[in-house]
Write a structure and sequence with these properties.
By secondary structure, the protein is α+β, with helices and mostly antiparallel strands. It has three helices and 15 strands. Strands 1, 2, 3, 4, 5, 6, 7, 8, 9, 12, 13, 14 and 15 form a 13-stranded antiparallel beta sheet that branches. Strands 10-11 form a two-stranded antiparallel ribbon. The protein starts with a helix and ends in a 16-residue tail after the last helix. About 9% of the residues have low confidence.
Length: 226
């Protein structure tokens, strides 16, 4: 009796799914795939095959769509069935951790933050150039669809060991200990060095000022042809 009840529930759910889909296909496990609703939007589980093109190998992706946008984890496989990537999406854009593989193993791990198209803003730290320990929190408008956010890791695929890491805040590479923009820190340091080079002791400045209007005396150094 319980088996019949479960079968009835399964058929009812399947019929409901079919009713919500204008077009769809049935997978090898009997589940509904590649559903397009009456508005023409992709919904639910999808399997997308990309054929080889201009020397680039083909691949297959599987994941879920929500109102025509990728949502959650998507897996990409080679035509031979080897895993190539595991990507995470939100609002149709990359979000969170994504991993990429070669035949030997993991190659790279990326970290992203998707931009909410309904509220394209984020809170960032703006550091004081004179005091690296001071910063203000400001709300800024974010351009684009997603940006690098967090730690990126690079691996030796044969050993699985991390060979390099990079830290990002809103697409800008930062120092992992202070969280400050690496390029901004370098520019500030260069400016400080340049300033130190032109600064002179007060005694030297006073002497140069005192003798600036005196006529310069030419001194022969023994060279010919002058």
């Amino acid at each position: 009796m319980l088996k019949y009840s479960a079968l009835i529930v399964t058929l009812a759910v399947a019929q409901l799914s079919f009713a919500q889909c204008k077009t769809y296909m049935i997978g090898v496990k009997g589940d509904t795939l590649n559903c397009t609703d009456n508005a023409g939007l992709k919904q639910g589980k999808w399997v997308v095959k990309t054929p080889p093109l201009r020397g680039e190998a083909g691949f297959e992706e599987e994941g879920e769509f929500k109102n025509n946008k990728k949502e959650g984890y998507w897996r990409r496989y080679s035509e031979q069935g080897d895993i190539l990537a595991i990507e995470n999406y939100k609002y149709g854009y990359k979000n969170g951790v994504s991993q990429y593989y070669s035949l030997q193993g993991i190659v790279r791990e990326e970290s992203w933050r998707a931009v909410n198209p309904e509220y394209p803003y984020d809170t960032v730290r703006v550091y004081d150039l004179k005091n690296p320990d001071k910063y203000d929190l400001r709300i800024v408008k974010v351009e684009g669809t997603s940006y690098k956010q967090g730690t990126w890791k690079y691996y030796d695929p044969q050993t699985g060991l991390i060979t390099k890491t990079e830290d990002y805040i809103m697409d800008k590479k930062v120092d992992p200990f202070t969280g400050r923009n690496v390029n901004a820190v370098a520019a500030a340091d260069t400016s400080t060095i340049a300033k130190k080079k032109v600064d002179k002791p007060a005694e030297v400045m006073q002497y140069e000022k005192k003798n600036s209007k005196k006529k310069k005396i030419s001194v022969r150094d023994g060279a010919t042809g002058y």
